[in-house]
Design a protein that fits this description.
three-stranded antiparallel β-sheet, alpha+beta, Ribosomal_uS8_CS, 3 helices, Ribosomal_uS8_sf, rRNA-binding
Length: 132
């Protein structure tokens, strides 16, 4: 029983990057699938694959590294809104990660998106995590 599946997802990715793994396998959920799609669209992961094995399924994430220096594309990934203390951001209080160099992933009424997309669509929501 995991009380915070999103934090578990982020921790698995963080640990795999620190251990220089190429692929990490994560138990699937709809929210995790959407977060994975956002990370892929923004270029933080190389590829992903959804597998429907068992009742829950899994997500295989191929991590992205620089070809010469082997530095990971994800320098930092941290959970912001936790089950004990939810963090919400409106249009006027939308966070900027590293002054716009990183992304904040939000869960809005129009789906999971980055802070820049939420500003463009004029919506707010729950700040799930920061990635840079």
């Amino acid at each position: 029983m995991n009380t915070d599946p999103i934090a578990d997802y982020l921790t698995r990715v963080r640990n795999a990057i620190k251990a220089n793994h190429r692929v990490v396998e994560i138990p699937a959920s709809n929210l995790k699938k959407e977060i994975t799609k956002v990370l892929f669209e923004k270029g933080y992961i190389a590829n992903f694959k959804f597998e429907d094995n068992g009742p829950q399924g899994s997500i295989k994430v191929a991590l992205k590294y620089h070809p010469i220096t082997k530095i990971p594309a994800i320098r930092s990934i941290s959970r912001i809104s936790k089950p004990g203390l939810r963090k919400y951001a409106g249009m006027d209080t939308m966070p900027r990660v590293l002054n716009g160099l990183g992304i904040a992933i939000l869960s809005t009424s129009k789906g999971v998106m980055t802070d820049k997309e939420a500003r463009a669509q004029n919506v707010g929501g729950e700040v799930l995590c920061y990635v840079y």
